[in-house]
Amino acid sequence: MIQRLMPRWVARRPDFWWLLAVVVVACAAQMWVYRRSPYVPLTGDMVYYNHAANLLLQKHVLTYWSTAPAAQVMPGYPLFVALCKWFAGHVYPRYGEYGLPGLRFTVLVQCVISVCTSLVLYRVARRLCRPLFAGIATLVWTLYLPQVVASTMVLTETLYILLFWCFVLAVWRAVERPTMWRWAVSGLLLGLSVLVRPTPLPVMAGLALYMVLQVRVGRWRWMDAIRHFGAALGALVLCLVPWWIRNLVTLHRLILTSDDAGNPLLFGSVPSWAHYPTPTSGFTAQQQEAQAIRNIEQGFHDHPLGYLKWYTIDKLWLMFSSPWYGESGALLWWVHLHGLWVCLGVIGLAWAAVRRVGARWFAVLLVVLVGLQLPFIPLPRYVLPVMPGIFVGVGLLLQQLSQVLAYKRALLD
Fold it and tell me: Is the pTM of this model over 0.70?
C-alpha cells in the first residue's frame, strides 16, 4: 500500500533514492556538527589518544599514558589520528600538523567516515527489511545525536563502528554466496576492527560455530567449512601479526590485543553497594586484572544473587538507559528518545527472530556484542557500536506492523 503511494520513478529504483537521501541527510548532519564545533576540547581518553598520535609523529613511538613504548591500547586509532595529522601538516600545510588544525582535520575525516557508516548500515538493513523500512532505520541512526557528536571526539567510536559494520555486511555477503575470497574479506575487516578496539575478537569463535552448524545440517561439507574458516582466520591473523611482532620485539612478550583490560575489568567488578577495594595507583595491568578476579570471586561468594543482578540487569540498565551524550539544549528532547529506540528495537528484533532465521542470527550477534561488554565498566559509550543494530530492529518492527495492518485490511476487504 505504501509503495503504491510512491511516485513511479521512486518505486522503480528505491535503493538508489534511499541511499541518496541517506547521503544528503548524513552530510547535512555532519556539516552541522562540524561547523558548530570550531574547537576540539580534549578530555579523558581523548587527551591520551592525541598524545599517542603526536608521539608517533615526533618519535615514532607507540604509547598511551607515557612516553615509553607500551601496548595499553590497540594501535589502530592512534595510527589513524597520526595519519590524519600528517596529511593535514604535509599535504595541506595551512592546516598544521599539531594542535587544533590537525585535530580539526581529524574531525573532518571522521565526519566523512560517519556518512560512510550510514551507507553501510542501509546495506545491512536491506538484508532484513524492504527499502522503505531499511531507509527509515538508517535515517533515524543518521540523525541519532550521540553518533553525530561522536565524529567531533578524538575517540575510537566513529572508526570502529564503520569497520565493524563493514565486517557484518561482509559476513552477510559471504553467507549469501560462500567463497574463500568473501570469507577472507570478512576476516580482514574483523582484524581491522580488532586493531581499533579488541572487543570483537571472540566473534571469530562465533563464525566457527556457524560453520560447524552449517555442516551439521547438511548445507556445507567439512572441507568447505575448513577452507572458508581458514580464509577468514588467515586474514585476521595477517592483520594482527605486525602488532604481535612489535610487542615481542619492543616489549619482549606476546600481547595478543592490548594490555589495559585490567582497568575497566576492575572498575566493572565492584557494584555501588559493595565495599571491595578498587586500587589502581601503582598497580600494573596484570595486578588490576588479578584484583578484579578476586573481587568477582568474593562478590559471588558473599552476595551471589546481588552480583548476578549486577552483571546482568544492573549493567544492562546502566549501559542502555541513557544515551552517550553530555550536552544539553534545544535538541535534548530528541536525544532522550534513546530509551524509546532501544525498546522498539529490542521488540522488533525479538519479533523478527521468532519468524526469520536471518533475523535470529542478527539478534544473536547483538546479544554477543552486549555480552562481551558485561564484564567491564558499564558505560553508555561502550554500547554505541550496538545501536545501529537496534535501529535495524526499529525498521523490522515497523515492517512487521505494516504487514499485520495489511493482512487485517485484506481480511476486511
Answer: yes
